[in-house]
Specification:
Helix 2 crosses helix 3. By secondary structure, the protein is an all-alpha fold. The protein is flat. The protein has a domain at about 5-105. It contains seven helices and no strands. Helix content is about 80%, strand content about 0%.
């Protein structure tokens, strides 16, 4: 016979799993941990980075593949190709459209810097600047540094 505490723990863990509460609870715990004890949090995060980033993503993508394969089987929600076409087109449009808009805005900002020889409005986007620096050659980076002055 199980103890009272063990039964309660099993009921609570079952509730958490059934209602998908593990992710939000984990996010709140990580947020509190990172803000109260940052040194231990970052040491732990670096120690498990491979397990989370690589191994965890393999399992996540395998689960998504299984779900899509089951949905496209006869009788599934995406069985006829016409039902599967809309989500595929939406995914391509969402990824391609967002990337295209970002690339075009980056090009506009870069060209406006060249014309005015000054900082353009909105050029403080650090994410885009980091991507730009990673993909540029040293000569291009030196040219951008000249444009900033």
């Amino acid at each position: 016979m199980m103890s009272r505490h063990k039964r309660i723990a099993l009921r609570v863990s079952g509730f958490v799993v059934d209602y998908l509460l593990a992710l939000p609870i984990g996010c709140v715990a990580a947020l509190v941990w990172a803000n109260t004890f940052p040194d231990s949090y970052y040491r732990f995060a670096q120690a498990i980075a491979f397990a989370v980033n690589d191994v965890g993503m393999v399992f996540f993508l395998a689960l998504i593949t299984k779900e899509v394969a089951e949905a496209t089987l006869p009788g599934g929600a995406l069985h006829p190709w016409r039902r599967a076409a809309l989500p595929v087109v939406a995914a391509i449009g969402g990824a391609g459209g967002g990337s295209g808009v970002r690339a075009r805005l980056g090009w506009i900002i870069l060209m406006s810097k060249r014309k005015t020889n000054g900082a353009a409005a909105g050029s403080g986007d650090l994410g885009w600047t980091g991507d730009l620096i990673q993909n540029c050659q040293p000569v291009q980076i030196a040219e951008l540094a000249k444009l900033e002055t």
